[in-house]
Amino acid sequence: MTLRLAAGRRRIAWLATIGLLAFSAGCMEGTWPSTSGSSTPGPLPTGAPLPTPTPQATPAPTETDGCTDNTECDNNLYCDGQELCVDGECQNGTPPCNGLTETCDEGENTCVPIEEPCTSDNDCEGEEHCDVETGECVAVEPSVCSAGAGNCYVANYTPGCESQLCCDLICAYDWSCCGLYWDEDCAAQAIRLCPTE
Length: 197
Known about the structure:
The protein is α+β, with helices and mostly antiparallel strands. Among the domains are: 70-113, no CATH class; 140-193, no CATH class. It is built from 4 helices and 6 strands, in the order αββββββααα. It has helices at residues 2-28, 164-173, 176-179, 184-193, and strands spanning 84-86, 89-91, 102-105, 110-113, 128-131, 136-139. A two-stranded antiparallel sheet has the order 1-2. A two-stranded antiparallel sheet has the order 3-4. Helix 2 (164-173) crosses helix 4 (184-193). It is rod-shaped, with a radius of gyration of 54 Å.
């Protein structure tokens, strides 16, 4: 009788150990041992932590489509030319003005010729005179050669002198004597070129 009880106790202890090991294995694998007698682990009990889902990579943004016509490339500037849409890409335009002989006026949307500096009165128009120092054509004041304008043989620092003949002669040679004022150079030229009246 004693041997039979001892054997029964050892069997119960052995079964308990087997059950504890099976329970521990199920917990380690994230499942709960099935109570139905099946060898397949059962679901985790309510409230058990769920596995963290693997984050999905965000698709890379696709490139925007290129141009389809010239209007999509136009920057509304005149002087850098009309931009063009070529094979789906905007291309720079060709400047409308010749950079060697013209400047571009953006405000007026036009090309302006570059004026060459004058070298003589022949390069100027009408009554203009060429100022060779600046290379610009300047307007000549009307003749001021008349009585009371001052002695032609001395500097008076007003335009012209009183002798019509001498004044016209000197001003044809040096426009500034009538256009600006009659200075020492004008008087010296008068002494040298004008006949004594």
